Amino acid sequence: MNKKNIIILSLCTIFLIFSLAFFGYTVYLKQNSKTQNKSTNIPETEAKVSSYFYDIDGNKLNLNDFYDKPVVFLLWRSDNSKSYTMLSLVTKYYEEYKDKINFLAINVDKANTNLNLIEDVKAANFKIPIYFDTDFSVSQELSYEKYPVMVFASQEGVIEKDVEEQISEDVFLANLELLGNN
Question: Is beta strand 52-54 parallel, antiparallel or unpaired with respect to 60-62?
Answer without folding.
Answer: antiparallel
